[in-house]
Amino acid sequence: MSRKHTIALVGNPNSGKSALFNALTGARQKIANYAGVTVERKAGRLTLPTGEPVELLDLPGSYSFDAASPDEAVTRDVVKGTFEGEAVPDVLVLVLDAANLEQHLVFAQEVLELGRPTVVALNMVDLAERDGLTLDPAALSEALGVPVIPTVAVRRRGINELNAAIAEAETHSDEEAHKRWHLTLPERRLSAKHMARAAILSKSTRHTIENGVDKVLLNPWLGPVILFGLLFVIFQAVFAWATPFADALEGGVGVISEAVTGAMAPGLARDFLTEGVLAGVGSVVVFLPQIIILFAFILVMEASGYMARAAFLMDRLMAGVGLSGKSFIPLLSSFACAIPGIMATRSISDPKDRLTTILIAPLMTCSARLPVYAVIIAAVIPETTVGAGVGLQGLVLFALYVAGIVGAMVVALVLRRTVTKGAASGFIMELPRYQLPRLKDLAIGLWQRAWVFLRRAGTIIFVATIALWVLLTFPKAEEGESQLDASFAGVVADTIHPVLEPVGFNREMSLALVPAIAAREVAVSALATTYAVDAEDEDVAAEGVTAKIAALWSLPTALAFLAWFVFAPQCLSTIAVARRETNGWKWPIVMVVYLFALAWIAAGATYWIAVSLGL
Amino acid sequence: MTLDGFDSGRTARITGVDWASLAEDEGKRLKALGVDEGAEVAILHRGVFGTRDPIALRMGNMTIAIRRMHAAAISVEAA
């Protein structure tokens, strides 16, 4: 055998292809309960029961080969063998939602017309049972002329049977494709109806839970109140629940720092560890609890099916600025990180709509901003409550998130009337059935997020912080001179500071923004390292960055710094992904320029207003 | 009459769709989701007060959200 065989998973959006992919390959591809989670081709390794290794492809969900959006085009090209550098898949695994057969059989027939060896995975049979459907896989298999295997991908049910069926189908992969008679869409739809009826043995009159739940969650009055209430609770929780864990981590870093100081002789090596690694990188790592709490909420919203409802509720607001609820999911993903958010825009069919969404995605408050916001808020905003149980710190955090959203809406409004001018786009989206999130999937999702965060701390944040530490440490200051003034970093700070002084930034802040171009969290580690290096004695160095900011920054200055980070595009990876997704440098440059301009104006306005109010 | 003016909760049969009034990709998507002559739909939920946009439809065993402007292009009769 020369070439490794390929097997491709195809089917409608949200039929569970990625969940099957994970179950078959042991991969941990992102799964969630809404249409359009997978927007590109992903490959994994599957071992057939015969022991033969094959390549398994996970493809974006598709309603038809007549593609309406970029992600659907990928699926069409791979399945039809016109995808660059990719042979026609040897076996197709057609994934159908058992509870939505009539709809999914329409695209299924289009796939079967190709005449390739095909196996059907009748997925989510458990949800079909919940809806009161009893299905007959044998009848369906007879009607379609291919094997049908009932599966529940997330519970790993039917996986071995499916794998065996794939191996059996693979033995026919060398045969000539016997294309089937081409049916028109109305014909396919009619035959889908007949096949679905024949495959459903019984249907109880039990009502699906969706309608009842949606009556509340999509209620025109109650729905938006519940959504905003939920978002509000999330930001309160980020502060309130994380505090004990964050304190413990911070204490831990302090203990290690003291131990290192005690055990090592004074010198460069000790300074590197205490000032660079522990004070710098450690100051970012302590925000792990906040990140985990934020993602716990996001993952539950995604897995339950509520995310699509939130898009429904937000559509009206989005329409007002020339976007659609379809942009809402990429934007909501951007609260985690703008990179998957920008990738997710591939499910948006209208190119101008998509470009606008890419350009405003960095305005959504990503999790990298959380350490920056949290450290400044903890330093300058008192830990008091306003009204019953509403913490002021959480409220300020909520306001910063709102500021990002409002900023994005205003920018979208301007863009849609100028550079991305075009007809108002529509909103067409499936609202998936509700599912109870599985603890194991949540745990895996959280672990992945925590790992990404720690890996960033160990790589990009570490490198940028250590580079700054080197610049801060050399050349050494004379007796009585400040280390910052004497160092190379002092020169950098003096160069950039005149631009930022008018908006209230001090020299340390201006300096911290330079390495933070790489990633926003670096602003925190850079400030921590700068203060640690510049501290005259070790006691001050051990104090921590929060205490230094509280002591040295005025309130207007701190607020201006927060306002800066609402807008500033301080993330190299985001710029790189925007370049890739827009095929050129033009739009990333537009994005960076307008965001820095907005950051400067926002910081300035905040500073000047705060000063004139006498804060 | 068109779907956007149809009563919520009652089942309607689609008698025609004015495809020309829809953007090409949106027409494709609606068609792929099963919106076409003869299909039966019911409005389940209407959006936020004021414009009551978007609307959630029941189509077969599936719920889909569309805008009122799409619904205005869909002619229906009581089923």
UniProtKB/TrEMBL annotation, chain A:
Residues 4-172 form the FeoB-type G domain. InterPro entries: Fe2_transport_prot_B_C, FeoB_GTPase, G_FEOB_dom, Gate_dom, GTP-bd, P-loop_NTPase. It holds the Pfam family FeoB_N. Keywords: Membrane, Transmembrane, Transmembrane helix. Gene3D superfamilies: P-loop containing nucleotide triphosphate hydrolases (3.40.50.300). Coiled coil: none annotated. The chain crosses the membrane at residues 221-242, 276-301, 355-381, 393-415, 453-472, 589-610. The keyword Nuclease does not apply. It comes from the Bacteria. This is Ferrous iron transport protein B.
Automatic annotation (TrEMBL), chain B:
Signal peptide: none annotated. It comes from the Bacteria. Residues 1-78 form the Ferrous iron transporter FeoA-like domain. Pfam families: FeoA. Keywords: Iron. PANTHER family: FE(2+) TRANSPORT PROTEIN A. This is Ferrous iron transport protein A.
